[in-house]
Description:
Elements: E1 21-25, E2 38-41, H1 43-50, E3 56-57, H2 61-94, E4 98-102, E5 109-114, H3 116-125, E6 135-136, E7 141-143, E8 145-154, E9 157-167
Parallel strand pairs: 4-9
Antiparallel strand pairs: 1-2, 1-3, 5-7, 6-8, 8-9
Amino acid sequence: MPEKTKIRKRLPIPKGTHRGMQLVLTEDVTHLGKQGEMVEVRSGYGRNYLLPRGMATIPTAHNLRLLERYKIRVIQAREARVADLRVLAEQIQRVPHITIEANANDEGHLYGSVTGHDVSKALKGKNLKVEAEMVKLQGPIKLCGLYELQLGLGYEIETTVKVMVVPLKQTEKK
């Protein structure tokens, strides 16, 4: 006698007012919403991107209860992170300027350029945890001089840092 296999039924995904699917975000998603919000997205975006990456879940009663419990812990962690970032912003403000040496010709034109990665590396050398993505440059720095750069640390906390780009000191060969 053949064995019966149990057929799993899929949960119906609630439809929104604009024929999209409604999901609850489990993480902050740029240009979409913050964690815990109920959002309406196109079905392909939800099914192929948000759900497989664990960025959203289907809004069942069980998932909503779990999310409320998780949200409390996330709010506490976010407040701690914001406090740490504010302390980091104050530490960066106390630094008068950072110096970056780069290869340059006699007129002060750099052979390469100074990017956000170089600024991040210089700040890490002073025990300030700043990632390259946090440095906001209008374009690469290609001349020696003093620049004032914006740093977006996250959670809408911004600060400025002064960067002095100087030519690399070379020993002359005779």
